[in-house]
Write a structure and sequence with these properties.
2 copies of one chain form a homodimer. Helix content of chain A is 15%, strand content 28%. By secondary structure, the first copy, chain A, is of the alpha+beta class. Chains A, B: Its EC number is 1.8.3.1.
């Protein structure tokens, strides 16, 4: 039997390094290439028992030593992997390879406290897990040394009351907080747990007094109609639906990594500035009708934009704003929600407590958090996120100081995209298209785009219209051609949506000064080592 | 002053050959390349007068010679260019270069009768045009030799009553008739004249007796509600809107021309199986509501498809059918029309007289001509055009005898596409996207896709939503880099729609067994000759 070693290396970051020992099995003559079927063998299991026995006697003797959180945080690699849990510190370096979820997943918690991770993966509450962990205890955690996570700018009082964030989030900017979950966690479920949903804030998270909070709707007569959360729930039909939100900067990091000689402008997001939640709320159109706002009358008066504003006000007192075409606000099939629940809970502070405008299929920036004001207007929102930052230009617009902002429409609905999040023998990822267009097919290539086959897909599309406001997850059992000539292969992924749109091949022609909407084929190189 | 000659050569057909004498003018230092601005100079004008004088005396002496239509049809090139008009035959070979509309347009009528062309371009009704033509008369046309155009299968009685077609149509199949207009004519106006609208028939054009015709709507109680054309006009609000129809096979010919080793299945359409008309009719949803058909009740019963059938019945008596998701039939914003007028006239027989279902934004095949039956059903239409022919598979499905038809949804909405129809100093073309997504930008590259700039675009998009069911026309004043190294350049075009979707770069990954929906960048090579 022939054995090979396969090592996945993302072009963009080291987070995709995986190591698998693999073996060949029966080939399938019906395919274009004769293939070896590669399956992971559980080489970790033997090590599991071996390591248990060896560490058992060492653990207890070190239990009284005191470590600071800072010291723990430095042991964040496979070479030295420490974690803390309920006030104790554990050196699980040797256990990593035996971790049933794989060393890669244990690495997510390296140097950190286990509690939030175990809160997510509740199989760890079993007694035998606690027993195993106890064997690796090396001391106690100094409680004075524990800081709230992500409070990296304590001195900046504006950010002194930020919510706790999941320690596994990749922080693209600490204040305002911009973070995305690690690929392996994002993929675990169709619905993203609230604590792993990507966060893209522009200002400190506002504190909202729910007792006095109202959503203020500007009326045609100049008055304001205030609506409490309770009134929203009582007066209107409540709807819950899965909606994928995506930042227009998702996959931005690929621009600077792959395009030479010019740099895009914006936070360097990976492939995980996208998440899916079940949002519950009421239809915006019902609120507008209740307020006596008529589409026909507004349109006749030239009031063609629906404007909203959040409570995340900067020094000027103006919250982040957005607008959508009024026609869309009134269109029931567009399902624009004023949401008050996210995955069955009050919306977390980071995601807009107590209200968020959810405009399914649009760029994240139109889904205003901490929603507090609604009005109609002849003009788009003056927010820079409406008038400037989220506009798409050609690759010929390269001078950041001279962007013809007014020449492009603001980005609303999103194009079809996809990404590989788990490049291994069981390759996995997501695909998504905006505007309610469901994904109908996800194709994968293991030869850089020369030949293609179809992945297995999972989604909640309407079976007749293929309509969906949520993403599609896909997986594919990776097979390496037996006659592979090089020591690496390039996996490419591309999705096709219900309008038959698909993704462009290369990133070059998609380059734009703001680094928006990179939906080129996502590519990952896998290095193959024969054994 | 430096002079060059630029010659356009399409990769796909010779119809794009153009010849221009061009000269350099001021260069623009602000561009990436130093450019020469190339403008056509009217070298034709001198020839115009020269040719007139020479042919004046020769014409009359030949007036009594008799030619057959067949003989005239053989003189269809720039080397020998004959036309007929009102019973006379003219040799306009020498006039071709002096033709104010260019030799290329005169070539459209080569070997044919001028009447239908002059019907379109009414500038020819001026007296001086008749005088010029008279000078080139070489004889009379034998009236017995004149056949109706496109009746190439007279013997086949099923096709003995086809309508007249415009002689400039490029015939992809004579019976059933499948034809597309020449690129230069298609581009002349935002609205395509009825006689130039592409035609994609599947059977002989039916003869409809308008006196007895009814549209039959199947009712939930099993009865049928017949509606005459007059009733439709009286009972429902009449709507007129510009709608672009496109065959899913548009640009299919590029597959076989560019992809090696495998052939697609279907008629070899060029870039002109797309046209735009102002369709007038009533909303399908109004008819359904009038008939007492409720979306909620249908959906509850699992009746999720709206089925229609045309009168173009084959030997089995079943007309060409189609279905669309019932949700879409009821959605006012989808604007599904039962149309009775096309560009202000009764719908021509080739386009569905007296009624056509117009489903804006969908593939041509769902826009059933000679519409006669409407019903709701738990199943899609059984028509092969619904269950088989218009389905999109990956490039790995190559065996025409073993296509997994049931695994793909039927194509409904269309993806974003564009084409170059006039490759010359004033480059022109169209761009289009389905599902009501307007075009927001059309980019052109003169270096094979390395660098891009924006074309000037014209459309009727809603200014706030960018929504449109019609195409966008674009033009671009072509400039050739002064420092061009090769003797040819490759022009590429790509469009971006209101959902920010754009076109894939290459055709290879779009290859599919049926040759559907080629929306790769359209590419034209231009050969540059320095003088």
């Amino acid at each position: 039997m022939r054995k090979n070693l396969i090592r996945a290396l993302s072009k963009r970051s080291s987070s995709h390094h995986v190591s698998r020992e693999v073996q060949s099995s029966s080939s399938d003559e019906s395919r274009k290439f004769r293939m070896f079927k590669w399956t992971a063998i559980s080489s970790g299991l033997a090590a599991f028992y071996y390591l248990h026995e060896r560490s058992k006697t060492e653990a207890l003797s070190k239990e009284e030593i005191l470590f600071t959180a800072d010291e723990v945080s430095k042991h964040n690699s496979l070479e030295s992997l420490w974690v803390s849990y309920k006030g104790k510190v554990y050196d699980v370096t040797e256990f990593a390879q035996a971790h049933p979820g794989g060393a890669k997943n244990l690495l997510l918690a390296a140097g950190k406290d286990l509690a939030p991770f175990w809160g997510l993966y509740q199989q760890h509450s079993a007694d035998h897990v606690q027993e195993i962990l106890a064997r690796y205890c090396i001391g106690k955690l100094d409680p004075k040394s524990v800081k709230k996570s992500c409070l990296k700018s304590d001195k900046n009082t504006a950010y002194s009351n930020e919510p706790e964030r999941h320690p596994a989030m990749k922080i693209n900017n600490p204040t305002p907080f911009n973070g995305e979950p690690p690929p392996s966690l994002l993929l675990r479920s169709f619905i993203t747990p609230n604590e792993l949903h990507f966060i893209r804030n522009r200002l400190p998270v506002p504190e909202v007094d729910i007792a006095t909070f109202t959503l203020d709707v500007s009326l045609p007569n100049g008055n304001v109609l205030p609506l409490s959360i309770d009134e929203l729930k009582e007066k209107f039909e409540v709807i819950e639906m899965p909606v994928t939100l995506m930042c227009a900067g998702n996959r931005r990091s690929e621009f600077n990594a792959q395009v030479k000689d010019k740099k895009v402008n914006g936070l360097s997001w990976g492939q995980c500035a996208i998440s899916t939640a079940r949002w519950k709320g009421v239809l915006l159109t019902d609120i507008l009708e209740h307020a006596g706002i008529s589409y026909q009358e507004c349109r006749a008066k030239g009031l063609v934009h629906l404007r909203v504003e959040g409570l995340d006000a900067g020094p000027d007192g103006v919250g982040t704003g957005a607008s959508i075409p009024l026609e869309r606000a009134f269109d029931r099939s567009s399902s624009v929600l004023v949401a008050f629940e996210m995955n069955g809970e009050e919306i977390p502070r980071d995601h807009g407590f107590p209200l968020r405008l959810v405009v399914p299929g649009t760029v994240g920036a139109r889904n205003i958090k901490w929603l507090s004001k609604i009005s109609v207007s002849a003009e788009e929102s003056e927010s820079p996120t409406q008038r400037r930052d989220y506009k798409l230009f050609g690759p010929n617009v390269t001078n950041v100081k001279n962007i013809p902002w007014e020449q492009a429409p603001s980005v609303q609905y999103l194009p079809v995209t996809s990404a590989i999040l788990e490049p291994s023998t069981g390759t996995k990822g997501y695909a998504y298209s905006g505007a309610g267009n469901g994904i109908t097919r996800v194709d994968i290539s293991v030869d850089g785009g020369q030949t293609w086959t179809q992945t297995e897909i999972f989604n909640e599309n309407d079976p007749y219209t293929q309509k969906s406001f949520a993403w599609t997850l896909w997986n594919f059992e990776l097979e390496i051609p037996e006659d592979i000539k090089e020591d690496k292969i390039e996996i490419c992924i591309r999705a096709i949506d219900s309008n038959c749109n698909t993704q462009p091949e290369k990133i070059d022609a998609l380059w734009n000064i703001r680094g928006l909407l990179n939906n080129s084929w996502h590519r990952i190189e896998l290095f193959v080592t024969r054994q």
